[in-house]
Design goal:
With 119 residues, this protein is mainly beta. The protein is 6% helix and 52% strand. It is built from 1 helix and 9 strands, in the order ββαβββββββ. Strands 1, 2, 3, 4, 5, 6, 7, 8 and 9 form a 9-stranded antiparallel beta sheet that branches. The chain is globular, with a radius of gyration of 13 Å. It comes from Flemingia macrophylla.
């Protein structure tokens, strides 16, 4: 299992990317029962009020955590864990379609502008 992570901010919040997880891993997580979300290419400022795990069906994203000079890139076929409390900018170069799950079902990322709607 390959994963990549970078520090997110001064509190060391870390995004974890698992590249091309096995079908058995995805089945174990119940990915297909998770809600779906998508957005067109663009730049979006997000704050995660709960930990999110998502699996990208399509798309390409470069994430710039607030307060960090580093970025992390992920795309179709990646399983990504975004920590609670992370503020970041998503630079979406290819439209995103993903399954997602929050640690707490009552929380969603808070966009700084109304860029994309969860469906």
């Amino acid at each position: 299992m390959a994963s990549t992570s970078i520090p997110g901010s001064s509190s060391e919040l870390t995004i974890t990317v698992e590249r091309n997880p096995s079908k058995s891993r995805l089945s174990e997580l119940g990915i297909n029962s998770w809600p779906k979300w998508g957005c067109p290419p663009g730049k979006y400022m997000l704050k995660f009020d709960a930990q999110e795990t998502c699996y990208l069906l399509r798309g390409k994203v470069k994430v710039f955590p607030k307060g960090s000079s580093e970025s992390i890139q992920f795309g179709a076929g990646d399983l990504v864990t975004i920590p609670k409390g992370l503020s970041c900018t998503w630079d979406v170069s290819v439209a995103v379609d993903k399954h997602y799950k929050f640690e707490s079902s009552s929380s969603t990322p808070t966009p700084s502008s109304r860029c994309c709607d969860h469906t």
